[in-house]
Amino acid sequence: MAKAKNPSAASMENIYSLNGRVPLLKSIPFGLQHVLAMFVANIAPIMIVTGAGGLSVQETASLIQTAMIMAGIGTLVQLFTVWKLGAKLPIVMGISFTFVSVFCYVGPRWGYEAVIGAVLIGGVIEGLLGLFAKYWRRIISPIVSACVVTAIGFSLLSVGANSFAGGVGAADFGSAQNWILGTVTLVCCILFNIFAKGHLKQLSVLFGLVVGYIVALFMGKVDLSALEEVAVVSLPRIMPYKPVFNLSAIVSVTMIFLVSATETIGDTSAMTNTVLGREATDREISGSLTCDGLISSLSACFGCMPITSFSQNVGLLAMTKVINRYTIATGAGILILAGIFPAFGAVLATLPEAVLGGCTIMMFGNIVISGLQMIGSCGFSQRNITIAALSLSIGLGFTQVPEMFNIFPDIIRTIFAENCVAVVFLAAIIMNLIMPKDREA
Prior knowledge:
Blueprint: H1 24-53, H2 57-80, E1 93-95, H3 100-110, H4 112-131, H5 133-136, H6 142-164, H7 176-195, H8 204-218, H9 247-276, H10 282-301, E2 307-309, H11 311-320, H12 325-340, H13 342-349, H14 353-378, H15 382-398, H16 410-416, H17 420-434
Antiparallel strand pairs: 1-2
């Protein structure tokens, strides 16, 4: 008689299941794929902000290590929860680009210590809002979340395009070499997705990154100099910067935390809608926001910037359908190891931007489509069409002409002038509140 299959046994079939066990060694490539998809985006905000704030190369390197550890811890909390922190969903966390503009405003004026003080306070405020999300989440209706997700996707397209061309500020931006690398990577992703069989099909992004990296090595586009003087083990220090609590900095950063919260709601909603086929629950929204805020405050305790959910990884989930929490936890483990063992992170940091851009273009496009699908699932009533059309046209249109905001104070320009997600969110919220729900009648 055939032996009954143990439902709790580790199986590769479980990579498409939220909670099933997957063989550890076989799950590592899927976790690594998530790390590679967000690695450069996780460290780039730190390099931009520390450069603007005048921090040394050694300080920047130390913060990059801390960023990887914090991203790994935040991801594990989202996957498995601690108290009320975390959504128990495959949400990958990392250092947020959303805060870059405001930190480049706060840092040079009041110092990096003021950035840390503002993150400590702002993170706690977002965490408390997350705990009580069920009382205020009603104002963020499905159509508002759908508009925010769509805006996130559109806002990331330029990020992918800049990476494809070699990265903002690169001396060879838009060069033929970068075009070749980005195109080779993208074509490899597509071909692997077409011809691979079974579970291997979901490793198309990893395959494209590996092939692109090898091609970049032969083209001399990989800088290995960072590996020459790397310590074996390094741990982050608690409170390397004494926080300064500047009121203007706190107000500015807290407002961006609210924008970041809407992105987290959008990411969580997009993931549950497109991958799990359902709406996110109040508990999941609350847990993801609380984790977002309080882990950001923890990050500040180690001198680092806030972390939040990564939209590019939501795009990867939508593309591969690999949502297993234990599988993605291997990626969180890799991030922590990359932070503890600097050599490991230094190797990953040599990944050329053009190679990353070849993969992210497809992933970010998936987020746009996910947002449009969410708008469709809300129904094409006249009310929903008006909210979506007006919020997206204002958010995407106005922020393409940031000079429109010159009449406003610096703090308003910092938050809204080039942040289409913030403008779309504000416009969608206002429209959702003022438009009568019985308009069709």
